[in-house]
Each structure stands twice: as structure tokens, then as C-alpha cells.
From TrEMBL, chain A:
Residues 69-119 form the NADH-Ubiquinone oxidoreductase (complex I) chain 5 N-terminal domain. The gene is nuoL. Keywords: Membrane, Transmembrane, Transmembrane helix. Pfam families: Proton_antipo_M, Proton_antipo_N. Residues 135-419 form the NADH:quinone oxidoreductase/Mrp antiporter transmembrane domain. It is found in: Endomembrane system; Membrane. The chain crosses the membrane at residues 31-54, 89-106, 118-135, 141-160, 181-203, 248-266, 278-299, 372-394, 414-432, 479-500, 520-542, 625-643. Its main location: membrane. This is NADH-quinone oxidoreductase subunit L. The keyword Transmembrane applies. It is a multi-pass membrane protein.
UniProtKB/TrEMBL annotation, chain B:
This is NADH-quinone oxidoreductase subunit K. The lineage of its organism: Bacteria, Bacillati, Actinomycetota, Actinomycetes, Kitasatosporales. One of its GO terms (molecular function) is quinone binding. It catalyses: a quinone + NADH + 5 H(+)(in) = a quinol + NAD(+) + 4 H(+)(out). The keyword Transport applies. The chain crosses the membrane at residues 6-23, 28-48, 60-83. Keywords: Cell membrane, Membrane, NAD, Quinone, Translocase, Transmembrane, Transmembrane helix, Transport. One of its GO terms (cellular component) is NADH dehydrogenase complex. Its main location: membrane. Its EC number is 7.1.1.-. It comes from Streptomyces agglomeratus. It comes from the Bacteria. GO terms for biological process: ATP synthesis coupled electron transport.
From TrEMBL, chain C:
Its main location: membrane. The chain crosses the membrane at residues 20-40, 47-68, 74-97, 109-131, 151-180. Its EC number is 7.1.1.-. The keyword Cell inner membrane does not apply. Belongs to the complex I subunit 6 family. This is NADH-quinone oxidoreductase subunit J. Pfam families: Oxidored_q3.
Length: 646, 99, 280
């Protein structure tokens, strides 16, 4: 069984290699190959899972060492895989959702002439992501980490002829570099502290080092997680990443890649357990981001960007839970999985809506679509119910547990974190209801298709005739079936995992679960959660369900306008980082030009001037040289006479 | 008369020859000035020979003459070939060894 | 014994008054000759002045008891080396006068400073040296029966290595001079027939080049022949002179002559006319 692990990674990697190198002859069949290999990977994962379930809880972790990667004395890195319960969860999520999205993309990208390349990138992403979660040491994890970053970059910029997509890809890549730097520094610190970066030795010897070092490593890991998971302060790239094709947004920027930060923190649980300050930082980042993303999600009219804000917010929940320590790790992962289902479903639904609406993304120009797209409506609606935490659906189980765990943190911190989480739940209900109402309810606010020349944001491949009214229609079966399957997951996963703490027990050998004890009863918290959800839904209904929605967004309050601009994140980055950097470089250039160049050029000029004068002595005339000789002889005679006189 | 006067004469001739080397541009004249300097030295050697009462000074002068003869042969050959290629016997024209 | 006495006199601290007169007269001549060598504009004159100085020096050698060197100075130096100089001067161009104007900035000034300083230092050095003893050559010359024998004895015993090496030096110098002045012909010289055939083949100047000069007054080789319109044809002058720019152009002279002739005849005719009018 151990030997199957490498195949998990190898299958999509092979697909990527074949599709990207295979050339045009694979244009017709390439997408089937990519989907097949993704499915194969899922089947292997399922087989391994079945095998794992059949074993005792403590024997479940598998290990496979392929070869020595960097065999330098004192610096040993292996290509080796570790498949424990945590990795298994991710493998199933990645390959499962990944396969569904492959299937969905077959229909979604049908008219795109570069579909083969798209599937190559998707397979590349799957391989890198699996490498990330299967690695048994931090260096290999870093390899996968960079690999998903690359795949994300390629896929965000898939329509690179659009300047906005190219810019978004670059932005995502650059912001991710900041986080990657944190991860590499963390790995270096680990190496200097422990002399290795394999999970086993590092995580089992965290107690041997100082707490300060653990805090440093933890903060660097948190920086890495912030970059990859779009947490404050490195959140700015996720909204723009929606420039990518919608399946990419669903797979990479909702279900899997952006949760890599959560994985990293949970995987490094022992380090964080040994560093309470770093843990506190994690919870603060999570709490801030969950509000930040939720507020941004409320203001966006672009359906994908609203969902992106939601993703940011939900990952904030996970990070918050991961920062709570052993009482939260399992819930973080559980929310991650359920979120993977319903958010992927929501994105696919959004893609389906856009597909039917000539790629219009402005929700104010939707309305009343439930009659035209029944399947999309139902699946999207189930995802919606799941994310707002409707009792019985998956989001309810996972989010409720996180809120409980936040309260269970204890003390003032617990109250603040729990309050923030509750507030977030209310806002979640508000913005998701807004999305739902704007899209599927109310009267039709459809607009003629924009002129593609004037609106370069239109996805290519789909025939758009300028001025034509959209004809909403249900998407093809290859798109609806994945949506249905994900909707089933959104509905059932929470109950399956949550009832009887099944998921917690499953992860227990990895995350060392501790039961949290909230200061108020669990039932009270659950009722509060449901109550705030109802409040959120009601407010949204009053605002968007009862009143007609203007097609052009009203100016809105100061907060709304700020939220539309992503709470000024880009302005902040521009002013603080870009301007600051510019001023710094300018002053450095000034110093370079005046001081450094002055010294260097001055030296050169003085030497050159001196040489220029000395050069005149070398005029080429033999007679001049003769004068020198003659003068020299005279001086010698004078010296001789002088010596004799003395 | 003090025979040391021969030495003063030799010094004077040597200096005149040296000045000629420095002033004249015609390679042949420069060469002649060099010969003048050699002759001045020879005079000094002969005078020294007389002073010390042995013939070694004359031997040196004799060798100087032999060497001067060889030098003149080669030097004049150089001047001739220089003149052939440059149509000039000026030492200033052969001033390529400069920056 | 009287010869010994004479040499002893030579060895005395001061010399005879005859030698003193000879020194002052010939010394002046030598210095003037040296100065003329340096200052004469023409290389020939310089060479002649130098030869004069060398002869004076030969006399001084004889006066100093170096009989062999004195003769060698005249025969080898003045006779052979200076003649070689004259040969080269002739080869390079006897008429070319050098300009004594200095072209290198500061050269003359530096030369004056160095020369004066050097002369003063030499004189000071000689004056300072302890030259009180003056042995004379009498004993040395007499040791082997004469000056020539004495020198020969030294050359072939004490200085025999140096002597042999100077022999090698002279041979090297002779070979070197030949190498320097000799130019190898890299291709066979073309015969007149081949040249004529080439001319015909190329079609340019099939007949021989025109002869220089067309008037009897000016058929010298450096004067261009005239074309029918009176302009000089440079082709008629040999290439070497053309390259050196030594073509003399006398066409203007001839025209000027003609003009002068016309003018004088005009004047005469005019005078005749005036006279006629006057008589009338």
C-alpha cells in the first residue's frame, strides 16, 4: 500500500507533462486524459483511504521514501511521502473536488481553443498540491508550495491577453512571494535549530528549543500561511485572482490551494503549541480576516468577488480555529473540508450563471434567474444554506464548532474571539443572502451584452454579440453533475463528520484533540449562532428582497465605498509599500549617484588626470628621452660628488 | 701647462656632443654628436693613461674605437633603412612609441 | 738616454711650453669644430667639422704619448668612419638643410639646463679630484720597446678575451648591417618583353611613355612635356620625381617669356609709331 502514495502525485504530474508537451495533436482528447488522470488519482486516494480505515487508529500513518533528494552531509532531504489522517483528508478533498472540477471544466471551457493547456495546468496544480500535503518534510512541502503558487499564477493569468488577468496573476505571484519568504525563513530557522526539516524529528523535539525560537518559526509560518491563504495583511491578491476562469476560482482559490495555510499551521501544530504568542497572532489574524473578508463580501457587486470575500472570511474562521490550539485544529480542518464542498459548489454555480448570462458578472444585472436555471438555483441554494450555517447542513456543524472553540479559549480573549466569530456569522448570512437574492430572485435586470472591445473583461470562447440580450439557460450536464455532487457534499458532509465527533476522532492521532469548555453552554452558543444567522438573513431580505434593486449601484455609505475598494487594501499597499519603496529606491539612487559614484568617479578622474599629465612625458621623441637620461646622469654625478664631499 | 687641461677639454667636448644629441633632429648629425662624445672620452682615457703611467687607458680607448666602428656600421644601416621607409632622417618622425 | 730624458720630461708635472701652445691653439680649434658639428645646418658641414675635431684629437693623442692611438684615430676614425658618414650623408641627400628650429616644447631649455649642469658638475669633479701625480708614459712605453709593442703586449695577454670578443662584435655588426640594408627580391624581375606584352594586354599606354620636355630649352628629366594646349603632362616625368614632387613647371616661364616678348615688340612698334607721328 505504501507504494501507491507516489502514484497519487505521479498521475496528475504525468497528465501535466503529457498535456503541456504533447502539442496540438492532443487538443481533441487532452481534456479527457486530464480528467481521467485526476480521477485515477482520486481512485488511488479512495483505495488508500479504505485501507487506512481498515487499520487501527495508531497504525494508519503510511510512509514512502522514494530517493534521497539532497544528500549533503548534515543536510539531508528526501523525496519521501507521509500519508496520515490529515494528509488523507486533504488527498480526498483535493482529488475529489479536483476531479469534479475537471469534469465541470470540460463543459465550461468547451469553446476555449486552449482547453488542453488549461487541463495541463489543472493537472499540474493537482500534482503540486498533492505533493504539498503528502510531503514528509518541510523542504518538499516548500516545493509543492511553490508548485501550487506557479499553477495558481498560470491559471489566474490563463487569459493573459486581458491586461487585468495578467496583472492579477503577477499580483498574486508577488504577494505570495512575501509569504513564501516567510516559509523559507521558517525552514532555515528549523534547520539551524534542529538540524533537519523532516516533520517527525522537528515536531517531536519542539520542547528542546527555546520558546523564543518557536515563536519566531511560528510567526514565519504564519506569514507563509497569510500569503497562501489570503489573510490580512497579505490578502490583497485573492479578489483579483477571480480574473481566472471560474473552475480555477472554485478549485484553487476556494477549495484547496488557499487552505494550504491552514494545513501548514495544523501540520506544524507542535510548534504552535510551544509558542503561545505565535498562536495568539494566528487567532488575531484569523479574526481580523474573517471580518475583513465578510465586509468586503457585503459590498461587492461582482458575484465572483463577493464569493472571494466570503472565501477570505471562511479561511479566517479556519485560521482562527487553528490558532486556538488542540481544541481547534480538528474543527479548522473540518470547516476546511465542508467549505471545500460548499464554496466549490457556489463558485461552480456562479460560473454556471455567468455561462448563461454572456459572462456578465455584475449581480445587479442578474435577477429572477431561478426559473431559467433550476439546477443551478437548487445547488447554489444548498451551498448558500450550508455556508450561512443553516441547521443540519454542513456549514452549521463546522462553523458552530469553531465559534464554540473560540469561546472556549477562555478569558477576555475567548469573549472577543467568540464575539467576532458570531458577528462574522451574521455578516456571512447577510452577504450570502444578498448574493442569493440579487442573482436568483427579484425582477429581471438583464442588460444587453457589452461590446467586447469596450469591455475587455469578457471571457473569450463564448460567442457574445454586442447589444444582444442574454438568454439564460441551464448549463450542460458536464457542468451540472459536479454541481449536484458538490451540493450533496454541502448538505451531508457536516452531519456525517460532526455527529458523534467522527471527524475529530479520525484526526485525533494527528492533532491531539482536547475538548474545549466554553464559559457558556454549547446549546446557548448554537442558538446564538442560529439567531445571528436569522438576523443577517432578515436584514438582507429587507434590503434586497423587499425593495427593487437599482442596476447601477448607489453611492453608499463610507464603509460601503471603502469595502467596494476592498477596504482600501490596494491603496494601503500602494501608499505604504509602493510609494515607500519608490522613495527608498530614489534616495538610494541619489546616494548611489552622488556619494558612491562621486567617490568612485572622483578617484578615477583624479587618477586619469594625473596619468594624463604623466602621459605627456611619454611623447615618443627619442630626444626627450635623451634629455631624461642626460639629466639623470647629471643627477648621479651630483650625488656622487655630494657623497664624496660628505 | 697642467696636463689636467686635457681633461677639461674632454669634458667640454663631451658636453657639446651631448647638447648636440639633444638639440639636433637629423639622425646622422645626432650620430656624429655621439661620436664626438666617444672621442672626448677617448681623450680623457689617453690623458689618464699618461697620468698613471700605464697603457691600460690606451687599451680602453682602443676598444672604444673598435666598438664605435661596429656601432657606426649598424647605426648607419639603421638610418639608411629608416630613410628608405620614411624618406626622412629626422629622429622626431620616428615617434610612434607614444600614447 | 736622451730619449729617456725626453720621456721623463713628458712625465713631468707640467709640460713643455711648446705643448702648451699646441694645446691652446688646437684645443680652440677642437672646440670650434665641435660647436660647428652641432650647429651647422647641413649634415655635410657637420661631418667635415667633426673630421677636423678628430684630427686635432689625433694630434693630442700623439702629444700624450699614445702614438699608436693617434695613428689609428686618423686612419680608422677620420679616414674610415667619417667617410662612412659622408657616404650615408650623400645617400640621404647632401643638399637637404636641417631647420634648427625646435619643435618639442621645452626641449631646448631642458637641454641647456642639463648640458650646463652636466658640464659644471664634470668640471667641478675634475677640479676636485686629487690629480697631483703625473707619472708620464716613458717607463710604460719603454717596457716592451715602444708604444705599439706595449699595447700589443697588453692586448694579446691581459685583454686577449676582450680583443677576441670585439672581433666577434665586428663580424656581428657587419652581418647586421647587411641584414638591415639588404632587401630580398621576392619575385623574378620582369623582362622588357614581358612588360611590353603586359602593356599590350592591358591596352593602356601601348606605346612607351612620352619623353619629358618638348622644347629644346627644357628637355631635362624633371620638366613635364607640354600637351597641345600648353598644359604640362605629368605622365612624361618619371615616377620617382613625380612622387617626390620635384617636377619643375616651366610652362609659366615660357608663357611669361612670350608675353614679355610681345610687350617689348609692342613697345617698340608703339615707339616707332610715335616717332612716325612725330616726324609727320
Amino acid at each position: 500500500m505504501d507504494n501507491l502514495i507516489a502514484l497519487l502525485v505521479a498521475a496528475p504530474l504525468l497528465g501535466a507533462a503529457v498535456l503541456l508537451c504533447g502539442g496540438r495533436r492532443l487538443d481533441k482528447t487532452g481534456h479527457w486524459l486530464g480528467t481521467l488522470l485526476a480521477g485515477l488519482s482520486f481512485v488511488i486516494g479512495a483505495v488508500l483511504f479504505a485501507d487506512m480505515v481498515g487499520k487501527g487508529a495508531e497504525d494508519r500513518a503510511l510512509h514512502q521514501r522514494l530517493f534521497s533528494w539532497v544528500p549533503v552531509e548534515g543536510f539531508q532531504a528526501d523525496i519521501a511521502f507521509q500519508l496520515d489522517q490529515l494528509s488523507m483528508t486533504f488527498v480526498l478533498l483535493i482529488t475529489g473536488v479536483g476531479t469534479l472540477i475537471h469534469v465541470y471544466s470540460i463543459g465550461y471551457m468547451e469553446h476555449d481553443e486552449r482547453r488542453r493547456r488549461f487541463f495541463g495546468y489543472l493537472n499540474l496544480f493537482l500534482a503540486a498540491m498533492l505533493l504539498l500535503v503528502l510531503a514528509d518534510n518541510y523542504l518538499l512541502l516548500y516545493f509543492g508550495w511553490e508548485g501550487v503558487g506557479l499553477a495558481s499564477y498560470l491559471l489566474i493569468g490563463f487569459w493573459q491577453h486581458k491586461p487585468s488577468a495578467a496583472t492579477a496573476a503577477k499580483k498574486a505571484f508577488l504577494v505570495n512571494r512575501v509569504g513564501d519568504m516567510g516559509l523559507s525563513i521558517a525552514i532555515m530557522l528549523m534547520f539551524t535549530t534542529f538540524g533537519t526539516f523532516a516533520f517527525g524529528p522537528v515536531l517531536s523535539s519542539t520542547g528542546e528549543s527555546s520558546e523564543g525560537m518557536m515563536t519566531a518559526i511560528g510567526l514565519m509560518l504564519l506569514l507563509a500561511a497569510c500569503g497562501k491563504s489570503a489573510q490580512v495583511p497579505l490578502q490583497s491578491w485573492l479578489g483579483d485572482a477571480m480574473e481566472g476562469p471560474t473552475p480555477v476560482s472554485a478549485l484553487i482559490h476556494a477549495a484547496t490551494m488557499v487552505t494550504a495555510g491552514v494545513y501548514l499551521i495544523v501540520r506544524s501544530a507542535d510548534i504552535f503549541n510551544a509558542a503561545p504568542d505565535a498562536q495568539l497572532a494566528v487567532t488575531v489574524v484569523g479574526a481580523v480576516t474573517l471580518l475583513f473578508g465578510a465586509i468586503v463580501g457585503c459590498a461587492k457587486d461582482d458575484i465572483k468577488k463577493a464569493l472571494a470575500g466570503s472565501t477570505m472570511s471562511q479561511i479566517g474562521y479556519m485560521i482562527l480555529a487553528a490558532g486556538l490550539g488542540p481544541i481547534g485544529y480538528a474543527f479548522a480542518i473540518m470547516h476546511l473540508v465542508t467549505h471545500g464542498f460548499f464554496k466549490a459548489g457556489l463558485f461552480l454555480g456562479a460560473g454556471s450563471v455567468m455561462h448563461g448570462m454572456n459572462d456578465e458578472v455584475d449581480m445587479r444585472k442578474y435577477g429572477g434567474l431561478r426559473k431559467y436555471m433550476p439546477v443551478t438555483f437548487v445547488t447554489f441554494g444548498l451551498g448558500y444554506l450550508a455556508i450561512i450555517g443553516f441547521p443540519g447542513l454542513s456549514g452549521f456543524f463546522s462553523k458552530d464548532k469553531i465559534i464554540e472553540a473560540a469561546f472556549a479559549k477562555g478569558g477576555t480573549e475567548g469573549w472577543i474571539l467568540g464575539g467576532v466569530a458570531l458577528l462574522g456569522a451574521a455578516i456571512t448570512a447577510y452577504y450570502m443572502t444578498r448574493v442569493m437574492l440579487l442573482t436568483f430572485f427579484g425582477e429581471k435586470r438583464w442588460q444587453p451584452a457589452p461590446d467586447p472591445d469596450k469591455a475587455p473583461g469578457v471571457e473569450p470562447g463564448i460567442e457574445v454579440h454586442p447589444g444582444e440580450m442574454p438568454h439564460p439557460h441551464e448549463s450542460p450536464r458536464s457542468m451540472t453533475i459536479p454541481m449536484i455532487l458538490l451540493a450533496v457534499g454541502s448538505v451531508g458532509a457536516g452531519a456525517f463528520f460532526g455527529i458523534g465527533d467522527r471527524f475529530v476522532k479520525w484526526l485525533e492521532p494527528v492533532t491531539k484533540f482536547e475538548h474545549g469548555h466554553p464559559p457558556i453552554g454549547a446549546a446557548a452558543i448554537t442558538s446564538a449562532t442560529v439567531a445571528v444567522m436569522v438576523i443577517g438573513v432578515t436584514v438582507a431580505y429587507l434590503q434586497y428582497g423587499r425593495r427593487p434593486v437599482p442596476v447601477v449601484a448607489p453611492r453608499g455609505s463610507l464603509l460601503t465605498r471603502a469595502a467596494r475598494r476592498d477596504l482600501l487594501q490596494d491603496d494601503f499597499n500602494h501608499i505604504v509599500l509602493v510609494r515607500g519603496g519608490e522613495h527608498l529606491t530614489r534616495s538610494l539612487v541619489y546616494v548611489d549617484h552622488t556619494l558612491v559614484d562621486g567617490v568612485v568617479n572622483g578617484t578615477a578622474a583624479s587618477v586619469g588626470g594625473l596619468s594624463g599629465r604623466l602621459r605627456k612625458l611619454q611623447n615618443g621623441y627619442a630626444r626627450s628621452y635623451a634629455v631624461s637620461m642626460f639629466g639623470g646622469t647629471a643627477v648621479l654625478i651630483a650625488a656622487t660628488l655630494l657623497m664624496r664631499a660628505v | 701647462m697642467n696636463p689636467v687641461n686635457y681633461l677639461y677639454l674632454a669634458a667640454l667636448l663631451f658636453t657639446i656632443g651631448a647638447a648636440g644629441v639633444l638639440i639636433r633632429r637629423n639622425a646622422i648629425v645626432v650620430f656624429m654628436c655621439v661620436e664626438l662624445m666617444l672621442n672626448a672620452c677617448n681623450l680623457a682615457f689617453v690623458a689618464f693613461s699618461r697620468m698613471h703611467g700605464n697603457l691600460d687607458g690606451q687599451i680602453i680607448a682602443f676598444f672604444t674605437m673598435v666598438v664605435a666602428a661596429a656601432e657606426v656600421v649598424v647605426g648607419l644601416a639603421i638610418i639608411v633603412s629608416l630613410f628608405r621607409s620614411r624618406h626622412s632622417a629626422s629622429v622626431d618622425d620616428a615617434s610612434l612609441m607614444k600614447l | 738616454m736622451s730619449a729617456d730624458l725626453a720621456t721623463a720630461t713628458l712625465a713631468a708635472y707640467s709640460t713643455s711650453s711648446g705643448e702648451a701652445v699646441q694645446f691652446w691653439v688646437l684645443g680652440t680649434v677642437a672646440v670650434i669644430g665641435a660647436l660647428c658639428t652641432v650647429l651647422m645646418k647641413k649634415a655635410v658641414h657637420s661631418a667635415l667639422c667633426l673630421a677636423g675635431t678628430m684630427i686635432v684629437l689625433a694630434v693630442f693623442y700623439l702629444a700624450n704619448g699614445a702614438y699608436f692611438l693617434g695613428i689609428v684615430q686618423i686612419v680608422v676614425y677620420t679616414g674610415a668612419i667619417m667617410m662612412l658618414f659622408l657616404f650615408v650623408v650623400m645617400l640621404v641627400g647632401v643638399t637637404a638643410a636641417d631647420s634648427l628650429k625646435e619643435t618639442i616644447k621645452g626641449q631646448r631649455w631642458w637641454a641647456a639646463v642639463c648640458g650646463l649642469g652636466f658640464g659644471v658638475l664634470l668640471v667641478a669633479g675634475i677640479g676636485q679630484a686629487a690629480l697631483t701625480e703625473f707619472n708620464g708614459l716613458g717607463a710604460a712605453n719603454a717596457a716592451h720597446g715602444g708604444n705599439v709593442e706595449g699595447i700589443a703586449a697588453l692586448i694579446f695577454t691581459k685583454y686577449v678575451f676582450a680583443f677576441e670578443i670585439t672581433g666577434a662584435l665586428l663580424i656581428t655588426a657587419a652581418v647586421g648591417a647587411m641584414v638591415l640594408t639588404h632587401r630580398e627580391r621576392t619575385e623574378k624581375a620582369r623582362t622588357q618583353r614581358e612588360l611590353a606584352e603586359q602593356r599590350v594586354r592591358e591596352g593602356t599606354h601601348v606605346p612607351p611613355l612620352p619623353a619629358p620636355g618638348v622644347y629644346a630649352r627644357h628637355n631635362a628629366v624633371d620638366i613635364a612635356g607640354l600637351l597641345p594646349d600648353g598644359t604640362p603632362a605629368e605622365l612624361t616625368v618619371m615616377q620617382t620625381l613625380r612622387k617626390r614632387g620635384q617636377i619643375r613647371d616651366v610652362s609659366a616661364e615660357a608663357l611669361a617669356d612670350l608675353k614679355a616678348l610681345e610687350q617689348s615688340s609692342e613697345e617698340r612698334l608703339g615707339r616707332d609709331r610715335d616717332e612716325e607721328e612725330a616726324t609727320r
